[in-house]
Amino acid sequence: MRYSLLVISQEPGDAEVSEEAMNWGRAAFDAYAKSLDAAGALVSADILQPVAASTTISVRDGALRVQDGPFADTRERLNGTFVIEVADLDAAIDWARQCPGALYGAVEIRPSAIIFRDGEWHSQP
Prior knowledge:
Number of helices: 3
Helix content: 25-40%
Order of helices and strands: EHHEEEEHEEE
Strand order of the largest sheet: 2-5-1-6
Number of strands: 8
Radius of gyration: 16 Å
Distance between the termini: 7 Å
Oligomer: single chain
Structural class: alpha+beta
Largest sheet: 4 strands, antiparallel
């Protein structure tokens, strides 16, 4: 089963994070990604740029609307994602528990409904 682990927290600029804490985070996320990869569970991982770098689009009545920044203005932000393939939700919870982001924010575990693989869409069990 494929799951997305969505790392949600304040951005470093919003939370006054020290350089020491940033160094700890870099090392912790590096070790976490390497452990997922070594276990054969990691599909992909992304640490996202700050929300200020985002662009949100929508199409209404055929017209493209482009907005600089996020769709919603909130304190908590989606800061990264890990896509994993594991046996079940219990395994996904165990990996999410080990995510460094869980220590200062939250990790939302969301199962994939449909995935694109080998040129086709596949439903997840």
